[in-house]
């Protein structure tokens, strides 16, 4: 009987030892920056090794803008796992796929061929919208992606655009919707090999390490540190989710903004983008206290 009680106590203590703990000091450091933002801002940070977190408006719904493309990627790899697609299969581009803008894929001629893997690269690295909408369709559309998300415990993250029944959500939140906590969780699951399969997750993570749009939070991470990320930006909402493979332990964070008063596109002056750089700097130096490097004033010039 005594042995049984001892075993139960050990199990209880063990579960508490591995339970997530709120990092109130980090919350206190971040809160003033989010609260002075002219709009609504939310963040969720998780340090994997310490198993500590910081959350401010972490369960508030935000527009995803292009960060929804991470869910499209998961949907494609789910199709690949089912044998319905192949990662390097040739696809044929059609003019009907064009989404007006500056996309690279949109410059293709009708009938030109491109591998699915390269369309994926354009979606994630360049945030090419023509590529993204094509892949969304190949993944089975928003409904099938949303079914996958629901089955894997994502309560709030959904594709809205071109998804029957979600017209009202699209009118309010755009292409997709999520919370800082859930999008950080998706990135963490990919890193841990928990999305579709370890092999699929590895490929997804490698793809997310090649971000052309690296002028916000990523700019504050030393260039020799590996990161995976995805950004989102529309006039009134800016966001990004970043996994940092830091020397003293990996951490992931997701920051979202909406109803932004500043809707400008000046990379140096936009308030939300400045917030993202401030937050990235705070988190990095909080976890990497030994890093006394002073950034070169010229960093970010190009």
- Total beta strands: 11
Q: What is the radius of gyration?
A: 20 Å
Largest sheet, in brief, is: 6 strands, mixed
Q: DSSP helix count? A: 10
Strands, helices and their partners?
Blueprint: H1 2-17, E1 21-22, H2 24-35, E2 40-47, E3 52-56, E4 62-63, H3 69-81, E5 90-92, E6 113-115, H4 116-125, H5 129-138, H6 141-151, E7 158-159, H7 167-173, E8 176-178, H8 180-191, H9 198-208, E9 227-234, E10 237-244, E11 251-258, H10 271-287
Parallel strand pairs: 1-3
Antiparallel strand pairs: 2-3, 2-11, 4-8, 5-6, 7-8, 9-10, 10-11
Helix pairs in contact: 2-10, 3-5, 3-6, 4-5, 8-9
Highlighted features:
about 300 residues; alpha+beta; six-stranded mixed beta sheet; 11 strands
Structural description of this entry:
This protein is of the alpha+beta class and 302 residues long. Helix content is 39%, strand content 17%. It has helices at 2-17, 24-35, 69-81, 116-125, 129-138, 141-151, 167-173, 180-191, 198-208, 271-287, and strands spanning 21-22, 40-47, 52-56, 62-63, 90-92, 113-115, 158-159, 176-178, 227-234, 237-244, 251-258. Strand 9 (227-234) and strand 10 form a beta hairpin. The radius of gyration is 20 Å and the shape is globular.
């Amino acid at each position: 009987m005594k042995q049984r009680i001892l075993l139960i106590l050990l199990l209880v203590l063990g579960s508490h030892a591995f339970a997530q703990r709120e990092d109130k000091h980090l919350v206190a450091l971040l809160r003033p920056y989010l609260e002075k933002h002219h709009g609504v801002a939310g963040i969720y940070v998780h340090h994997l090794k310490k198993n500590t977190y910081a959350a401010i408006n972490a369960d508030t719904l935000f527009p995803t803008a292009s960060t929804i493309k991470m869910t499209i990627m998961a949907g494609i790899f789910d199709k690949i796992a089912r044998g319905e697609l192949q990662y390097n299969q040739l696809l044929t581009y059609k003019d009907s796929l064009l989404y007006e803008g500056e996309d690279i894929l949109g410059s293709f001629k009708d009938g030109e061929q491109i591998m699915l893997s390269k369309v994926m690269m354009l979606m994630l690295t360049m945030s090419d919208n023509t590529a993204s909408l094509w892949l969304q369709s190949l993944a089975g559309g928003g409904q099938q992606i949303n079914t996958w998300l629901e089955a894997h415990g994502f309560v709030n993250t959904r594709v809205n655009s071109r998804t029957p029944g979600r017209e009202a959500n699209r009118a309010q939140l755009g292409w997709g919707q999520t919370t800082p906590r859930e999008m950080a969780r998706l990135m963490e699951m990919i890193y841990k090999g928990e999305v579709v399969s370890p092999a699929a997750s590895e490929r997804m993570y490698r793809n997310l390490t090649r971000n052309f749009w690296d002028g916000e939070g990523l700019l504050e991470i030393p260039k020799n540190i590996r990161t995976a990320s995805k950004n989102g930006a529309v006039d009134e909402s800016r966001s990004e989710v970043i996994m940092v493979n830091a020397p003293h332990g990996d951490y992931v964070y997701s920051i979202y903004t909406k109803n932004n008063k500043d809707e400008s596109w000046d990379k140096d002056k936009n308030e939300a983008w400045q917030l993202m750089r401030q937050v990235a700097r705070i988190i990095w130096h909080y976890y990497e206290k030994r890093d006394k490097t002073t950034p070169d004033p010229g960093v970010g010039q190009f």
